[in-house]
Specification:
By secondary structure, the chain is an alpha/beta fold. 43% of the residues lie in helices and 14% in strands. It has two domains: 120 residues, Aspartate Aminotransferase, domain 1 (Alpha-Beta Complex); 222 residues, Type I PLP-dependent aspartate aminotransferase-like (Major domain) (Aspartate Aminotransferase, domain 2), CATH 3.40.640. The protein binds pyridoxal-5'-phosphate.
Length: 373
């Protein structure tokens, strides 16, 4: 691109830090010529539901046709499941697309979007890409400080992003905290409540977001097929929002945002309760395995309500992630999300968790003195 053209791109876009995805296994294996496992993107170690795979294969054979741009069948199934109308369901190219659309529909230069420090990196990116000001509130105990966020709402604030449970720290807030927060949010400010990891949460007082949705016009709930349903590669998620907002989002999205293969797989995955149950079970067990193993090394991982574990390792965290890579284990260093001393490990299959703990057992001792210094 010519320099002159580049200079025409607004500074608020050029200044956005690029999203850093987890390294693909194939890339690491090619570069380092070793077998690698990926515990870096909070994926499902069981793979997709077999029912979803079969539905995807069948849909693939009809790939000469455009998909149903309105995702009617999937919307109706989700509406029935959640007790809302199908006009209140928006199917997105992953829930990521809806994070972006929430900002595009409501923000512009002169307005503001609010979120927490240390949360999902797409929220600040979506806010900044719209030209609005980014308001970020510091965390408390590795979680959202909802009272401080309520106090940070300004006249110009139009969208607030919350992740519950949170990525990358793995913490969750409870129903009473959310209730109190929502009471303090003006009715013309949209609250995007991202529940990508809800199925893994164990906290007994986890908010009943659908009940809140019925009571509040300004709440959007985001869910995804990428995590517990194991369909991250197909890119499909959904939002539950008031029909008026869904109507506007439909104008902004590309007409065929999700593929027929993804829609068919998602529909079948919804009916595979057994796969969901097994995924939650293997994840909760693996989470315990990782937390106990790290604890035995003298580390203090944050208690997790998700399919990943966050642990602070001190100033060598990035280097340690690099060394784990050379042992064939891909984890996520978190400097780019505001935690330069921490890494995040996604829960894998039991043998993958063992491989990580064995590699960490070799790598960590040389660094432990630095952390304690
Ligand atoms: C909190 C949170 N929301 C949304 C997403 C994106 O999910 P999707 O694959 O549906 O775009 C992620 C992905 O890691 C996430 O951690």
């Amino acid at each position: 691109m010519s320099r002159f053209l580049e200079e025409r791109i607004p500074e608020y876009i050029r200044g956005i830090p690029a999203y850093v995805p987890g390294k693909p296994v194939e890339e690491v294996e090619r570069e380092l010529k070793i077998h690698a496992i990926k515990l870096a993107s909070n994926e499902n170690p069981l793979g997709p539901s077999p029912l979803a795979l079969e539905a995807a294969r069948n849909a693939l054979a009809r790939s000469n046709r455009y998909p149903d741009g309105g995702s009617k069948v999937l919307r109706e199934a989700l509406a029935a499941r959640h007790g809302v109308s199908s006009g209140e369901i928006f199917i997105g190219l992953g829930s990521s697309e809806i994070i972006d659309l929430a900002a595009r529909a409501l923000l512009r230069p002169g307005l503001a979007g609010l979120t927490s420090h240390g949360t999902f990196a797409l929220y600040p990116i979506a806010i900044r890409a719209s030209g609005a000001a980014l308001l970020e509130v510091p965390q408390r105990n590795y979680g959202f400080d909802l009272p401080a966020m309520a106090a940070a709402i300004r006249e110009e604030t139009r969208v607030i992003y919350l992740a519950n449970p949170n990525n990358p720290t793995g913490t969750a807030f409870g129903a009473a905290e959310l209730d109190e927060f929502l009471r303090r949010v003006p009715r013309d400010v949209l609250v995007v409540l991202d529940e990508a990891y809800i199925e893994y949460a164990e906290r007994m007082d986890f908010p009943r977001s659908l009940e809140l949705f019925r009571e509040r016009d300004n709440l959007v709930i985001l869910r995804t097929f990428s995590k517990v349903h194991g369909l991250a590669g197909l890119r499909i998620g959904y939002g539950i929002a008031r029909a008026g907002l869904v109507h506007e989002w439909n104008k902004l999205r590309t007409p065929f945002n999700t593929s027929a293969v993804a829609q068919a797989a998602a529909l079948a995955a919804l009916d595979d309760a057994e796969h969901v149950r097994r995924s939650v079970e293997i994840t909760r067990a693996g989470r315990g395995q990782l937390i106990a193993g790290l604890g035995r090394m003298g580390l203090h991982p944050v208690a997790s309500e998700t399919n990943f574990v966050f642990v602070e390792l001190g100033p060598h965290a990035k280097q340690i992630a690099g060394e784990l890579l050379r042992h064939g284990v891909i984890v996520r260093p978190l400097g780019w999300t505001g935690f330069p001393d921490a890494i995040r490990i996604s829960v894998g299959a039991p043998e993958e968790n063992d491989t990580f703990l064995a590699a960490m057992g070799q790598v960590w001792p040389a660094h432990s003195a630095v952390r304690q210094a």
